Amino acid sequence: SIKRLETINELRQAINRNQLTLHFQPKIKLPDGEVCAVEALLRWEHPTKGMVPPNDFIPLAEQTGYIHSLTMWVLESAIQHCAKWNESGTSIPIAVNLSARNIQDENLPSRLQELLDQHSVNPHLITLEITETAIVMDPKRAMEVLNRLNKMCLQLSIDDFGTGYTSLSYLNDLPVDEIKIDRSFVMDMLNNKGNATIVHSIIELAHNMSHRVVAEGVENQEILDRLCELGCDVAQGYHISRPVSAGQLNNWLAERT
Ligand code: C2E
Ligand code: CA
Ligand code: CA
C-alpha cells in the first residue's frame, strides 16, 4: 500500500536524520536484585507520529532488507554506550536483539568484530538475543553464524522461548548462554496453572542444560517472589523498570546504590 511505501521511505532516512534512539531495560539478578545487564530496545522518534514502537517498523525493515542497516546502527550505538559506561567505571553488559535475517548474514561476525575493536569493548559484555523462529528458518546457516559469534566470545540468548518451533535438539547443538522465557507465560503465571508449569519447566530445562534463565514480563512483586522460589536467575519487566533513555537509566542506577 501507499502508506507502507511512505513508511519504508521515511525509515530509510531515519538513520541520517538522527531519529533513531536506544532505550534500555535493566535485567536484575535473583534473589539479590543486582543489575546484571540491560537490553537495548530500538525507538524511532518520528517527527509527526511521535515515538514509533519497534513492532510497527521492524517487520517492514525485515521485509525490505533494510534490517541490515538498522541492526548495524543498533549494534554500533549499543557498543558506543557500552564503551562510555566502561569509561565511567560501571561496566554494564548489554543485550541487543537480532532479526532472523541478521543471523543468515555471513558478514555479521566480521562487522561486529570491527565495531568491538574500534570501540575497545570486551565481547563478553555483549549478548545477542535471537528468537527460535530465526534459527528454524535456515538452521544450518544460522548455526554457522552463531558458532562464529560464540568463538568471538559474545553471549547468545534465545529470546521468546516457548513460543517458537525449535526442536529441543537445536538447543542442544547451539552455543547458547541464556534462555529468556517469553513474557506471555510469565505475565499471568499466578492465575494460569498451565503457564506456571511452563515457566517452572523452562527453568528446569535451562538449568539442566547449564544455561542461565531470564524471565521477562515481570509486572509485579508477587511474580518476582515466585520466580525467586523457582530458582530463576534473572528477571526483567515493568515492575523493575520500563525501558528508559540512557540518561534516565543513569539516574535509575544512581538511585539504587
Ligand atoms: P522483545 O525482544 O521481546 O523485547 C521485550 C519487549 O517487551 C519490549 O517491547 C519491552 O518494552 C516489553 N516489556 C518489557 N517488560 C515488560 C512487562 O513487564 N510487560 C509487558 N507487557 N511488556 C514488557 P518493545 O520495546 O516494544 O519491543 C518489542 C519487540 O521489538 C522486541 O521484543 C523485539 O523483538 C523487537 N525489537 C526491539 N528492538 C529491536 C532491535 O533493535 N532490533 C530488532 N531486530 N528487534 C528489536
Ligand atoms: Ca529481546
Ligand atoms: Ca522477548
Short description:
This protein has 257 residues and is an alpha/beta fold. 46% of the residues lie in helices and 20% in strands.
3D architecture notes:
The chain has 257 residues and is α/β, with parallel strands linked by helices. Helices cover 46% and strands 20% of the residues.
Structure annotation, total helices: 11
Strand order of the largest sheet: 1-2-4-5-6-7-8-9
What does the largest sheet look like?
8 strands, mixed, barrel
Chemical compounds bound to the protein: ligand C2E, calcium ion
Integer-rounded radius of gyration? 18 Å
Strand content: 15-25%
Shape: globular
What is the averaged pLDDT score? 95
Number of strands: 9
Which structural class best describes the helix and strand composition? alpha/beta
Helix content: 40-55%
Pick out the low-confidence regions.
none
From the N-terminal CA to the C-terminal CA, the straight-line distance is 51 Å
What's the order of the H and E elements?
HEEEHHEHEHHEHEHHEHEH
